[in-house]
Design a protein that fits this description.
Elements lengths: L1 E5 L6 H8 L5 E14 L5 E19 L1 H11 L3 E10 L2 E10 L7 E5 L2 H15 L1 H4 L3
Antiparallel strand pairs: 1-3, 2-3, 2-6, 4-5
């Protein structure tokens, strides 16, 4: 069973449940040493290493092997799943997360991705149009 740190569309419990096929317990979390940017032309974000930055997100507990395989498929080629240290309730915790691969950094926008903006303006479009999501639900 794995712990997954999410920082974008997967922070939405309904999307995470649809992608993994599991109803999972979660906590709010913070990842230090990374920054979250919008991906140009997409509703979803990416994280890349950046000193003196942090990303607010959510950790989900107990993701099984099938759920991990579904997440890997959902995230696609732009992302690499790696083990990172996140802070949950001011305690460090090892969690897997999907970091944008260096070779695709040219696709990142100059602005930071905002979760509240996604909820208000991007979530409906994301769930109806993003092929990676529609393929799994």
């Amino acid at each position: 069973m794995a712990i997954i740190f999410t920082y974008g569309s997967l922070m939405c419990e309904d999307i995470m449940t649809a992608v993994t096929g599991q109803k999972l317990a979660f906590d709010e979390a913070r990842l230090i040493g990374y920054e979250r940017y919008a991906v140009r032309g997409e509703a979803y974000p990416a994280i890349i290493p950046k000193t003196a930055s942090s990303v607010q997100g959510r950790v989900y507990y107990g993701v099984n092997e099938q759920g991990l395989a579904r997440l890997d498929s959902f995230e696609g080629d732009y992302y690499q799943r790696i083990l990172l240290k996140v802070n949950v309730l001011d305690r460090p915790l090892d969690a897997h997360s999907y970091v944008f691969r260096d070779e695709y950094r040219g696709l990142l926008a100059d602005w930071r991705w905002d979760f509240e903006y996604f909820l208000q303006y991007g979530k409906q479009k994301f769930t109806s149009q993003y092929l990676g999501y529609r393929r799994l639900v």
